[in-house]
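Discussion board: Methods & Data

I've been asked by a reviewer to show the raw model output for two of the constructs in my manuscript, not just the figures. I'm not sure how much to include, so I'm pasting the format here to get opinions. Each protein appears as its amino acid sequence followed by a line of discrete structure tokens. Is this the kind of thing reviewers expect to see in a supplement, or should I convert it first? Here is construct A:
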Amino acid sequence: MTELFTIGCHLSSAKGYAQMAKDAASIGANTFQFFTRNPRGGKAKAIDPDDVEAFRNLAAEFGIERFLAHAPYTMNPAAAKPETREFALQTLADDLARMENTPNQMYNMHPGCHVGQGAEVGIGLVADALNAVLAPEQTTTLLLETMAGKGTELGRTFEELADIIDRVELSDHVGVCLDTCHVWDGGYDVRDGLDGVLEEFDRVLGLDRLRAVHLNDSKNPLGAHKDRHEVIGGGFIGADAFSRIVNHPALRSLPFFLETPHDALPEWGEEIALLKAARA
């Protein structure tokens, strides 16, 4: 039996879950990612129960088992300003409650920026926020994303992510999303040293924590700490490396999500077809 290759891209949630399922299927995807609200902040659109029910039917028809919701970029639980941290807490709590309308899915967030307080303080604030919002009964897995290390970003190293998770009381609800552009820009050589990177991930975090992969090439050389995504094969990581990534034994059973810089669905469809062809 052929192993399921779970791959999709970032879709607009403006028209609801059912439309996202249709859009995903139209380009050969069997998963998708979306922002829970405007990525620059704002109030989330009300969830329509009829839309959720239509999505469940379409997901079963199209073979969509998992999706990934993405928190807004403005959410910073490590901020120095109390009002910014409070916004992050409110957003996290609201998003996680909304996620239970579609149980057993994943919610991805950037850990945040310590804005000059120092990584140790920032890590503590992120862990405090997660301890405040995670609940034993939730079915959603919250993912911390690997970051490129620009500015005062947290999550630039596997050790920083492990430090956050070690302080979370309900850590069984927490996993990691590995972004290929981010880790490359952060100094992890996923092009020529993929085995070593994953061995280090396993040593520091444990591969059981790895739940999803963002597939993005990079406009920057290794270790640039800039975070500028490029289309697959158009950047410094290169197409051959992505063939190795989607086929690696430690990764191939995970869902993959494209965040490459395209303006139209067919362009992501072309990349999905390319990666499907590379899948052994």
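Construct B, same format:
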Amino acid sequence: MVVFDCERMKYPNTGLYVFCDQVASNLVKQRLAIHDRLCLFVPSRFKGNWGPEVLYRPVHMMDKLYLHCSHDVRVWHSAHQQSPFIPPKGVRQVLTVHDLNFLYEKPPKRHHAYLSALQKRIDRADHIVAISESTKRDLMDNLNLSGKFVEVIYNGLNHFDGDIVPPVSRPDGPFLFSVGTVLPKKNFHVLPALLKGNDLRLVIAGNRSSYENRIMEEAAKYGVQDRVSIVGPVTDAVKYWYIKNCTAFLFPSVAEGFGLPVIEAMYYQKPIFLSDRASLPEIGGNHVFYFDHNFDPDAMSAQLRRGIEIFSRGGVDMELMKRHALSFSWERTVRRYIDIYNDLI
């Protein structure tokens, strides 16, 4: 039996939720290629979520202390690097590492504890996957891999097949858009400065936190707080309305393992402005514009004006951008994971 750990789906509107959902969905679609039965390890409310064709193992509160596996479990896929659910010896383990964001978010005095915990998971794993070359570099630079090969398997593009739906309260003018959990690593507080001297609005969607106070403090500093909206989590239907209708998509994150919203905005052929940190240059390539890593407000504003002008006069090959987005495929991602499972089996 092959078990895929979907436990992180208990946190909706996050990248890990999307990863678990997309991998589980595509594993079910391609289950006949797996040389064993498939079981999904899920929060209880997701039992049966992908149909009756596969087995489900609900998460139990005691699993963190001791993860009991039936005798026929041969491969356990841990879907993220901090998973507390470690299979017993004798079960082969695939470990997907999304990021080492703590290196950029936490003070250096705390790095050792995080690295020690991750080292134990690296030591236990039989096959290690990073979701970007950036994450792979962080692993190689900061951990002892003991000669283990780290394979890069990119995430895929999310296809939304439903009807795009406008928000209840639409922006009352041209707007810039960003999306992601509202945390300091997303660096959203550098964005209100871009509204100075123009009539643009800024909309930020995603799970909320106290960090939004910092964003609004910056907005007040520039006198643009009435044009900044932090709208909280939104449905996919609404998110894609914002992406499709925005003047530009912004993603200034300083700690990012992949950046799923970036390729979503590419698919909709929008002018895109990213930070030049972590994995974002790797994912965006030469199809997007980059903010200088110092995030100087004047330089960012100049880059935004320049990029929108270049984009409007056809300086970006939009079809090539869309093809780049389509090159990231969940079907292909999962096909490679299945190859790994079968090798371990």
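Answer (T.O., handling editor elsewhere):
This is acceptable in a supplement if you add a one-line summary per construct. For B, something like: The two ends are 9 Å apart (CA to CA).
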